[in-house]
Every structure is written in structure tokens, then in C-alpha cells.
Design a protein that fits this description.
The chain folds into two domains: 89 residues, no CATH class; 67 residues. By secondary structure, it is α+β, with helices and mostly antiparallel strands.
Length: 200
């Protein structure tokens, strides 16, 4: 039940970015359920809760209530016990970060920024942009990968996963079967020039 409430809340917050049809299909709930619950008070976060949610999400749930309280008290007068209670009730407590081990000598390829803030495209699927959005659901985290066509701001591919890894990005990209020659996919890590017939 808590999971569905969080889904409805997320859909309300991002209704301007994605269509309700896309979101209901993505999360596997009916449109009638969304419309029935979107205005219920229980699904609404207070201003303080919204700010705490922003802070814990921005910091990937690595901060405990003491650190979050130290950050938020600069803006809002609130006691540390109140912050701890909100985080506990909402399932926003600190999550242990898994240690990552990298092999020495790993080389990461980077690309020049060929977009240079020029998002205007003359035809569909000429310039695409991709990003991954963090979706906090209680004590768990999901990741929404999207690809948007800058020609008309249409979401042309999207996928949700439990892990924000390279496979999520590849699976999202593989949803697009055809692209014009020289199409550009831009992300905050660089760009990838795509060629025809580059997909399986």
C-alpha cells in the first residue's frame, strides 16, 4: 500500500514531464486508481517533508537524520527529533553504500560536447537526450531511464530498473529501432554518434 501511495505521489509530481498513460503503464497501475487517489491528503507531503525528500534523494540516501537536520535547519526551524521521525515514517533513513571495486588501469572514454546547448533539430530523432531519474519508494530505490527527442520533447523510450547501470541505458536505447544517419544521443557524461542499423 505504501508503495502505491509513493507511485501516485511521484506521478503527480511528474505529470508535466510524462503522460499519465506512460506512467500508469510503467508502474502497472490503472488510470482509475491514480485519479481516485491523487487528491487524497494522505498522499500529500508537507513543505518540510518535501524539502527532506529533496535532500535525501539528492544525496542518494547516504545521509542520516543528523546530517539532514544540519542541512535543513539552515532554511527551516525544525528539531532533530522531528526530522528523525519524518525520515523513519517515510522510509527515508540512511542506506548503507555498497563498496565498489575497480580494476586498476580502467580507461573511461569521453566525448566532446557536440550539442553545445543547441537543442534545435530540423527533423525527428536527429538530436536525442537521455538521463536517469532516481525514484525513492520507501526504503528502496528504482531508476527511470528516459530518452527524449529534442525535436518535439517526446519521450521516445523509457525503462525502469533496480540498478542504474550500463545495461539499463543499453536496454532503453535498444527500444529505438531506427534512427537517421548521424543522429546524436546526448547525456551529462558526453555523447554518442549513432549510425543506421546499429541496433539489433
Amino acid at each position: 500500500m505504501v508503495m502505491r501511495k509513493n507511485i501516485v505521489l511521484f506521478m503527480k509530481q511528474h505529470a508535466q514531464e510524462f503522460s499519465i498513460t506512460q506512467l500508469t503503464r510503467l508502474f502497472g497501475i490503472s488510470r482509475s486508481y491514480y485519479y481516485r487517489h491523487r487528491y487524497k491528503e494522505i498522499d500529500t507531503l508537507s513543505d518540510v517533508e518535501l524539502r527532506i525528500q529533496e535532500l535525501v534523494t539528492k544525496n542518494h540516501f547516504l545521509y542520516g537524520y543528523r546530517k539532514i537536520h544540519a542541512l535543513i535547519k539552515k532554511e527551516i526551524p525544525i528539531g532533530i527529533n522531528k526530522v528523525a521521525k519524518i525520515m523513519r515514517n517515510r522510509g527515508w533513513n540512511c542506506q548503507a553504500k555498497k563498496k565498489k571495486f575497480r580494476k586498476p588501469g580502467t580507461i573511461y572514454k569521453t566525448f566532446e560536447n557536440v550539442i553545445a546547448k543547441n537543442w534545435q533539430a530540423e527533423k525527428p530523432r536527429q538530436k536525442l537526450t537521455t538521463d536517469i531519474t532516481y525514484l525513492p519508494f520507501g526504503k528502496s530505490m528504482l531508476y527511470l531511464s528516459t530518452i527524449m527527442d529534442t525535436y518535439n520533447s517526446e519521450i521516445v523510450a523509457y525503462k525502469i530498473s533496480n540498478h542504474p547501470n550500463a545495461q539499463l541505458a543499453v536496454d532503453t536505447l535498444n527500444q529505438i529501432k531506427t534512427l537517421p544517419k548521424g543522429a546524436i544521443l546526448h547525456s551529462d557524461q558526453g555523447r554518442l554518434t549513432l549510425r543506421k542499423n546499429s541496433f539489433k
